[in-house]
Amino acid sequence: MLTVDKLRIYEQFDGDIDAWARASRGQATTGMTDEHWYLIDELLMGLATVKTGVASPSYAQQLEQRLLASTSDQATRGILHALATRRGSPNAA
Fold first, then answer.
1. 48-61 pLDDT, tens per residue?
2. Contacts of 37 (CB under 8 A, 6+ apart)
């Protein structure tokens, strides 16, 4: 289950799973796992696809269901949407 705390960790490392793995040195004190990281990446990619308007309505609906099933609350979903928007911005580094 994704939480605000896990998304903050993802943001702290700017989505770089290797940097996070090196910094955490295998210590799972945060509850963050590789699977959470991959899920965040997958959801961000899906949200970006939907935001560009190239996704089918059925894909958008499936993504929304996945978001609801894999996030703890609306705050977490809001952060995911914000991250997806920032990633899709032409000014994003």
1. 999 999 999 999 99
2. 10, 17, 20
- The amino acid at residue 87 is R
- 10 Å CB burial of residue 46 (0-12, 13-18, 19+) is buried
Tell me the CA distances in angstroms from 8 to 3, 13, 37, 70, 83, one per residue in order: 9, 9, 11, 16, 11
Q: How far apart are alpha carbons 90 and 93 in whole angstroms?
A: 8
Specify the pTM: 0.88
Q: What are the tens digits of pLDDT across the range 16-42?
A: 999 998 887 756 567 889 999 999 999
Distance, in Å, from the CA atom of 64 to the CA atom of 77, rounded to the nearest integer, reads 10
* Token pair belonging to 77: 């979903």
Half-sphere exposure of 73 (CA within 13 A, CB side): 5
Structure tokens at 92: 């994003």
3-state DSSP assignment of residue 2: strand
